[in-house]
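Hey,
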Amino acid sequence: MPSVTPRGHAMGAILALAWTLHAAPLSAAEARQEYDVKTAFLYNFALFTEWPDQTPPGVVYCLLGEDRFGPALDALESGRLRGAPVEVRRLSATDSIAKCHVVFIGAWDPAALRQGVEAAKGLPVLTVSDAPQAIDSGVMIAMTYETSRVVFEVNLDAVKQAGLALSSKLLRLARAVH
C-alpha cells in the first residue's frame, strides 16, 4: 500500500486540476477535460478505499453504460494499485459487476442506474456515477461538475453495506456525506 504522502500529493494535484475546469457550456475539448479529471478522481477513489481481505489484488475498473471517458479511462491500465496491475473493462450487462472493484455507472436513465446499483448490491464493489440523483439511487460516490469544478458526495451507508471502507481523508474532501 502506498504511503500517505504520495496519496496526499496525488489528491491535491487532482483537486487543483479540477478547479481549473471552465464553466458550462462545454466545448468538446472541455468535455474531454472534464472526463480526464473524473478519471483521476476514479483512480483516487480506489486509492482511498479498503476492500475486504479476501478481495483479489489490483483494481478492475468497469464502465457500465455510456462511455464519456474515451481513452482517459484506458490510460489507468498503465498503472498499478493494491500491488497489482490496473485493468479497465467496459461492460455490456450487469452480470459481470462481481468481477469489478470500481464500477462507473454511466446511465442517465434512472431505471438503468438503479439496475446497475442493484446488481452491485452486497458485493465489495465501489459504485460511482455522475448521473443526476445518483446518490438517491444508491450509488456510493456521485460526481458532479458544478461551478467550474468536479465535486462529489458519498453515500456512506451504501459503502458500509458493501463491506468497504473509505479513508477519512477522502470523506473530508466530499461535498456531503450521507
